[in-house]
Amino acid sequence: MIQRRTLLAASVCSLAAPAVLAQPTAALPTIAKTVRILQGFPPGGSLDSVTRPLAEALRGRYAPTVITENRSGAGGRIAMDAVKAAEPDGSLLVIAPASLMVIYPHVYKRLSYDPFKDFTSVSTACTFQFGFSVGPAVPAEVRTIQQFAQWCKANPSRASFGSPGEGTMAHFAGVMVARAAGMDLQHVPYRGGAPAIQDVVGGQIAASINVLAEPLPFAREGRIRVLATTGSTRTPFLPDVPTMREMGFPDVDIQEYFAVWAPAKTPQPIVSALAEHIRAAVNTKELQDTFAARAFLPSAVTPRELDAMVRTDFDKWAPIVKSTGFSIDS
User: Fold this and answer.
1) Cα–Cα distance between 96 and 38 in angstroms, integer?
2) Which listed residue, of 10, 83, 191, 205, carries a Cα 20 to 30 Å from 165's Cα?
3) Which residues make beta-bridge pairs with 29?
4) Topology of 130-229 in CATH?
5) Domain locations along the chain
6) At what angle do helices 285-292 and 46-58 cross, to 10 degrees?
């Protein structure tokens, strides 16, 4: 173990690694002080269900203490701003949906952060698809997207879909589904996915597009029907439900992910070590079982791979968002 005098001498010689100790069991640096992982949404949601077990798995590996902190508000942007302004020493991180990096810059006219200049990519934690569901407001014989499109044409005043909110990836995924199938659907934004799917179950709205975990229990009970999922392959959580690609809509290939970012200029040894610790964590059976309960697939990539994913998705969503004419001034 490196002695305190050695650490102090090292800090004088190299300001690039201000809070790093050598880990005796592996050639990876470890943060020596408490690490906080911010998330920009309230406790109890999908992101929270990933962040808390991940933080626990990182405790003792990446840092002696790893805690989570909910900085909810402004659609997750408060947490992003806090990490943007933090010291780049690896002790303050953010975990967020990809939307905040790849869609928000196209939606918000005055976004306070730049996804490429203000953050350092670390790793994904999990990936997930969206499910397009209908409930009792739609006749039971409607079992496919094409049949739903026909029903919408016959019932234009009832043709609508809910989403977790305006400007989310689910919002634009719903737009893509509607366009691909030739449906004229009114978008009904909710404050979160849970109330949207509850209204589908209750018959107040015809359809909704949600993170798969939200309609899954109701679909298994037969209370709603998931007509399609948005991934490139079928989800193992609903193996009998086809993808949009399978149903003849190849352009609807959408997968979101929760990922971890550090402030810009965080030293690369810290970033690489953290990415490796995340990879080790998501490969444990405990986290895999926890994620599966929420219909999330564990996923860990390198910092370079995450950066490439963000840049690809940033370019992918730009024309889609622009074509809707949707934007937010604030």
Assistant:
1) 9
2) 83
3) 22
4) D-Maltodextrin-Binding Protein; domain 2 (3.40.190)
5) 4-128+256-324, 130-229
6) 170
Q: For 86-123, what is each residue's pLDDT tens digit?
A: 999 999 999 999 999 999 999 999 999 999 999 999 99
pLDDT in tens, 153-212: 999 999 999 999 899 999 999 999 999 999 999 999 998 888 999 999 999 999 999 999
Q: How far is CA 308 from the centre of its chain?
A: 16
3-class DSSP state for residue 161? strand
- List helix spans (H) across the chain: 4-13, 46-58, 77-84, 99-102, 104-107, 145-154, 169-181, 193-201, 216-220, 268-282, 285-292, 303-324
Topology classification of domain 4-128+256-324: D-Maltodextrin-Binding Protein; domain 2 (3.40.190)
Domains 4-128+256-324 and 130-229 share a fold: yes
pTM (2 d.p.):
0.86
